[in-house]
Design goal:
Layout lengths: L1 E4 L2 E4 L6 H7 L7 E5 L2 E2 L14 E6 L5
């Protein structure tokens, strides 16, 4: 299926969850904010399957000082 990930079309396997997508991208769930279809996705929804055409925005937290 195809999703829009940070503005780019990406092909992912049917039934892929947000948590699985983050693992594929080598991202830690606790260090990112996820927007799914223009709404903030809470971590309790990370194990639900994504759907064809979903729009996902992933923002990583950056420390500094």
């Amino acid at each position: 299926m195809k999703v829009l990930l940070n503005g780019d079309e990406k092909e992912i396997a049917d039934g892929t969850t947000i948590r699985q997508l983050l693992a594929q991208l080598s991202l830690t769930p606790e260090k990112v904010a996820i927007e799914l279809n223009k709404r903030l996705a809470r971590s309790d929804r990370y194990d639900l399957p994504l759907h064809d055409g979903d729009e996902i925005e992933i923002v990583t937290f950056v420390g500094g000082g």
